[in-house]
Amino acid sequence: MILLGACAGWSLITAAAHGGRPEGMLLAVLAVAGGYAAGRVSGALLPVAAPCAGAAAGLALAVAPPGLSPGPWYAAPPGHAGATAALLALATGAACCAAWATAVPALRLGLRALACAVVAAGAVLGSVGGCAAGLVVLLCSLAAGAVRGRAAWLAAPVAAAALLTATVWATAADALPDGLTRALEGRFTGPRLRLWRDALALAGRNSGLGVGPGRFGELSPAPPPLPTEGRPHSAPLQQAAEQGLVGALLLLAVFCWVLYALWRSPRSTPIALTAGTTLTTLAALAAVSNALSFTAVTAGAALLAGWATARPWAGVAWEP
């Protein structure tokens, strides 16, 4: 709660210093706090049913028409590719956590079939990122059953997400070899790469307080991918540009605290590792997309963290 309060307070400070709209960050903080609290309570009372319902809800949001897509209702809907991939990854992780939480073999098999259905839905929807992210979560969850120690296995996906984030920053700074840069330019669109470079340039000129929350679209010379969207399609770069290095470090601190909570979680190791893999996959998606701009994604991530760290309710038998 201290970290979330710091995120909310810093967004207000940077908005007061340079102007801007801190409502997006405040909404995200509210979604994370509410989702985590709801996940802790529902995970303690319904360790199987709650994540199962969450997986079904995530899948429904991912396949819903664009008018029902997640995001602030008062804003025009941005691109949905990142949000769709993130929701599919979260739905897969929730189904796998529910599968590990039950001791009934038939129910566990059914929940894993639900996770497979979510991965297949990504392929049907044409979401390559969602299909790949869900498949990674599913395979890592199956492998987690043979793991005894948590620290090393939590560190592996974190290292992969950190490498991807570092690659995005190096690409924005034109610090990669020409061959690798051309390969990345072929994978990501030109406008997105220009947005990354603009975000890094703004962060370099305003490293203390940033340019103000929500002001990237006003100050970036590059045309956004959609006329109604003013985001650099990278959560770390957006934080650094709009709220300075302190904002980026606060985002990193929240992520590190969640991983620490999973490491100390009273739940079984497969559940903790499944949730950790899912959230690091989401972090990787957020590094190259606008996934965290959607309220349903931030709330869903907090729900998953709450389910995976919930403690047994007094007087309620805890399922293995």
Description of the structure:
- 71% of the residues lie in helices and 0% in strands.
- The chain has 13 helices and no strands.
Characteristic key phrases:
mainly alpha, disordered C terminus, globular, 320 residues, single chain
Task: Please write out the topology.
Elements (H helix, E strand, L loop, with lengths): L1 H17 L4 H23 L3 H15 L17 H21 L3 H21 L2 H16 L7 H22 L5 H10 L2 H16 L10 H4 L15 H29 L5 H19 L7 H15 L11
Helix pairs in contact: 1-2, 1-11, 2-13, 3-4, 3-5, 3-13, 4-5, 4-6, 4-12, 4-13, 5-6, 6-12, 7-9, 7-11, 7-12, 9-11, 11-12, 12-13
Helix amount, in percent? over 70%
Oligomer: single chain
Q: What is the terminal-to-terminal distance?
A: 29 Å
Overall mean pLDDT stands at 85
What is the SS-derived class?
mainly alpha
The gyration radius over C-alpha positions equals 19 Å
Summarize the model shown:
The chain has about 325 residues and is an all-alpha fold.
